[in-house]
Amino acid sequence: MLDQQLLQALEQVVGEAGLVRDEQRLQSYLSDWRNAYRGKAALVVRPASTEQVAAVVRLCREAGVALVPQGGNTGLCGGSIPDDSGTQVVLSLTRMTQIRDVDAGNETITVEAGVLLQRLQEAAAEAGRLFPLSLGAEGSCTVGGNLATNAGGTAVLRYGNMRDLALGLEVVLPDGRIWNGLRGLRKDNTGYDLKHLFIGSEGTLGIITAAVLKLYPAIRSRTTAWVALPSSQAAVDLIGRMRALCGDRLTGFELMSRQSVEFVLRHVAGCGELFAEPHPWYVLIELSDTLPDSPLAEMLESGLGAAFEEGEALDAVVAGSEAQVAALWKLREGISEAQNHEGPSLKHDISVPVSRIPAFIAQADERLQQAFPGVRIVCYGHVGDGNLHYNISKPLGSEDAPFKAQAEAIMHLIYDVTAAFAGSISAEHGIGQAKREAASRYKDPLELELMRSLKQTLDPTGLMNPGKVL
Amino acid sequence: MLDQQLLQALEQVVGEAGLVRDEQRLQSYLSDWRNAYRGKAALVVRPASTEQVAAVVRLCREAGVALVPQGGNTGLCGGSIPDDSGTQVVLSLTRMTQIRDVDAGNETITVEAGVLLQRLQEAAAEAGRLFPLSLGAEGSCTVGGNLATNAGGTAVLRYGNMRDLALGLEVVLPDGRIWNGLRGLRKDNTGYDLKHLFIGSEGTLGIITAAVLKLYPAIRSRTTAWVALPSSQAAVDLIGRMRALCGDRLTGFELMSRQSVEFVLRHVAGCGELFAEPHPWYVLIELSDTLPDSPLAEMLESGLGAAFEEGEALDAVVAGSEAQVAALWKLREGISEAQNHEGPSLKHDISVPVSRIPAFIAQADERLQQAFPGVRIVCYGHVGDGNLHYNISKPLGSEDAPFKAQAEAIMHLIYDVTAAFAGSISAEHGIGQAKREAASRYKDPLELELMRSLKQTLDPTGLMNPGKVL
């Protein structure tokens, strides 16, 4: 499929080890880990250095061949999967795995795009520091992908998104030139902030090859609790209360509806009821501190005590061991998998202002039940980020097909309500190919126009991950 | 000077109260507060709403008239001062002073560009929250200016720059259209992050008219200390130690050389020596917490005790009252004013990686004393940000004129050393007109080219604050 001359030139750059052509070996690069998206590719190229990436980009540009940058392939929106044409080249960064520098005195680490998030966390720990980004795919996802998609997760409440953790980038531009923006500076006001343009652009403006990232002090105390609540409003009230009391010691605040927890209890081995009776909502609260003997349990007790008095909280369990901590997180993290056992599920990753979470849920629930009676709403998420995974399972005992046929209508209903609350239709998953149409429908046309003009400016030939984002 | 038709059209938009033409009243808009930069203007326009700003921008664009957006006029690089042509129109945002919304549940506040930083801090406090940005000019500077210049200050160590405090913006684009990006969302991954393009662009890409900003929990305990150190390396070691121990409770860590403190002792009334003998370096340490009775003094003692043992710290005073806290900060904040009493001073606002501060100081000091014997180095700054105000006063007893004639050579020497340590020639003050040439000399040409292409894309007629930044 690929021009022989180009193929030879690419092989000269990356060597035989840097090319994947074998049909069998190609497969894992053509589909995401959930197998939700599948494409074709002329070739997979795996450069081992920034200079090789630059050379590959230049060669492909000269030949007019589109590139699809790819990391751990764990994205949920198909951003790293090529299209069906078979003409695109996948540029995998997974051979760029060097940790170039750890500067403990500057509280920074410089890593290449192909480093696994988990490896980065470990390297930080080896330096007595914390790299805080944490998400389900951390054992498989790469730093480059985390940056390209501005990854979120459960620690955003305290530490921000991946965007907030980056001080500098190295990027191969669409014309093959290398921008060395690998500055480890906390303050630098010498012009437009270019790094923020590339972060979250999903490889459509250039290829991130390395980054300088912030490190944080290691955590030496932690307390985790599971709390039953009467309403989602109680969750918003409780996070306000805990935040005012604990400040940055509040590092986790995860919301789960009863329906979400029921699915986990039914399908995930080793998870059991925590209270004598069911409650409509639960939150998982995590406090942590750099102090080895921080009185976190006392702070939690003090906050929860007041919450019980106000009727914000109904019951609570505080983990007494690491095993119990793990069990609580398993209840939370099992939701996504558990839902798959209940038939096809429609997953949405929305955000609204934190204060509007209860009204959003009330309105979305009501309109959904009116329009699609019996659908089961699996609502959970990160309260402090206003980020809900507002997922839908088919009505109990119904067939898959009619439910699947309603997927788009259900999505539009949820996005309509999200828009009415000034929210986002993709809080942390990005756009990729999955939400391109929805973005063009729900985003401000002026904003889309500005995005298009930036794309045109930086990638005039349109060969960087075409068909994604815009 | 201005076309009568345009003048009438502008008056129709903003009313008589929104125009300043009187020579006397014009003066304060034509010069910054230090009177370091002075320009001329055809007119000052003071719109009172976003729609009025948009209409002014449209009218000026049609007439081909350049606009200079202006806030509190407290910038240090002349970014808000018009040129000498007398053809530019100053667009002052100081009538846009509405606090549009305080959403305590979302921990956000929405304010217009003309709101004073101090007023914003007060509004946050009234809501039981903290707005953390803090800098010398806070009583006069505006939120719009803080955003346009990505302001820094003394709280960046813990809370980041102004960029990190903004969730959403409202911007009047160079063509007069209004981009409403006033989203109060912690997570929104639906495309390129446009707000970061406008923040720090000093009005050259558009005019920021309002913003959604983050609020933080109120601070309820605070401990402040003044510590004598043997070296700047000790400051870097000590901040690492305190950060590992206290985490985010470490909210201030300001470095001062003995020379800096001596100037304050000599020129600022009410400041006295704190220790029996002089020491080469001092740091002001501030710990703070959301807990009302946080054991900060014990933590400080524990950290300093270890530092004394390691020889990192030589002596310390812990403030025992609010008056003593104020006295310590006065010693720190008096430096800039004190230096003015020692004749002309050359001010530089550089940053390097934190770990390289000692080597930077050693090399810059040595090269300066070799090249310009006798100059007095007034070095102070924010250790956690790697940000030094590395200022120079003339040799004792020398004339002003020969020293002033060396200003550019001294600046280049300091910037050369900064560049050698991968630093920034403008850490927090921006570029404005003051550092435009230096930026073109010290920034990566590729980065300048990218900046120029973004400017061309967003402001093709070049009428937004021409002659600034680029």
From TrEMBL, chains A, B:
GO terms for biological process: respiratory electron transport chain. It comes from the Bacteria. PROSITE patterns: FAD_PCMH. This is FAD/FMN-containing dehydrogenase. Residues 37-218 form the FAD-binding PCMH-type domain. Its cofactor is FAD. InterPro entries: FAD-bd_oxidored_4_C, FAD-bd_PCMH, FAD-bd_PCMH-like_sf, FAD-bd_PCMH_sub1, FAD-bd_PCMH_sub2, FAD-linked_Oxase-like_C, FAD-oxidored/transferase_4, Oxid_FAD_bind_N. Gene3D superfamilies: 3.30.465.10, 3.30.70.2190, 3.30.70.2740, Uridine Diphospho-n-acetylenolpyruvylglucosamine Reductase, domain 2, Vanillyl-alcohol Oxidase, Chain A, domain 4. The keyword Flavoprotein applies. Keywords: FAD, Flavoprotein. GO terms for molecular function: catalytic activity; FAD binding. The keyword Metal-binding does not apply. Belongs to the FAD-binding oxidoreductase/transferase type 4 family. It comes from Phytopseudomonas punonensis.
